[in-house]
UniProtKB/TrEMBL annotation:
<dbReference type="InterPro" id="IPR005501">
    <property type="entry name" value="LamB/YcsF/PxpA-like"/>
</dbReference>
<comment type="function">
    <text>Catalyzes the cleavage of 5-oxoproline to form L-glutamate coupled to the hydrolysis of ATP to ADP and inorganic phosphate.</text>
</comment>
<dbReference type="InterPro" id="IPR011330">
    <property type="entry name" value="Glyco_hydro/deAcase_b/a-brl"/>
</dbReference>
<keyword id="KW-0378">Hydrolase</keyword>
<keyword id="KW-0547">Nucleotide-binding</keyword>
<dbReference type="Pfam" id="PF03746">
    <property type="entry name" value="LamB_YcsF"/>
</dbReference>
<comment type="similarity">
    <text>Belongs to the LamB/PxpA family.</text>
</comment>
<protein>
    <recommendedName>
        <fullName>5-oxoprolinase subunit A</fullName>
        <ecNumber>3.5.2.9</ecNumber>
    </recommendedName>
</protein>
<keyword id="KW-0067">ATP-binding</keyword>
<comment type="subunit">
    <text>Forms a complex composed of PxpA, PxpB and PxpC.</text>
</comment>
Amino acid sequence: MASIDLNSDLGESFGAWRLGDDEAMLTLVTSANVACGFHAGDPTTLLGTCRSAAQRAVRIGAQVGYRDLAGFGRRFIDIAPADLTADVIYQIGGLDALAQTVGSAVGYVKPHGALYNAIVHHREQARAVVAAVVAYDPTLPVLGLPGSVFLAEAEAAGLRTVAEAFADRGYTPTGELVPRGLPGAVLADPEVVAERVLRMVEHGEIEAVEGTVLGAQPESVCVHGDSPSAVAMAAAIRARLDGAGVRVGPFV
């Protein structure tokens, strides 16, 4: 039986600013990429998200990023590698402490936003993130874009690497994500997205924005929790996968 993990970026509200519907998403996904306070999320929000995830047996991942609340972590920062390593250790440890108080723990690490995209090619920053995971807990898997230097560096360091695909993001012909703000960067139709995910799982392929068919064999598929139709998309994906007999479950 084919199987796939569904993950989503959660815990991104901050104080009075509410973003997404974590409670609804946690009934649909099997892994939660929980913000760690640098790009989004205050401690109370993060604790509540961890508690809800633990109650539903959803795996908790540390979504580490640049220290960029104002930009939601979507702006590249030319940070020294040693500082980035320290920042990532700090983020993993903080979220892990919150998760442990509700009977769970951080089970994997996934970079967020601009950091995720930077370390597709930026080897120094990729090594800095890998060094942080190795220093904190070398048994933690890392999620990343297939073909990225991040996954290559992680594998070389002995970490388990998990190839990820995006349900609701456009791909370039080279297999990278279309930059936000460009046509085709973000998909919003739940039925189109659901069919796209099923195609990934059953046929190992995904169509780029200009029609090129790319190979895709992800262990986990992300649907962003902050998009307006996030819950509808996640529900459509689950319904399509369940209807096709695909097992949806966590990779850890």
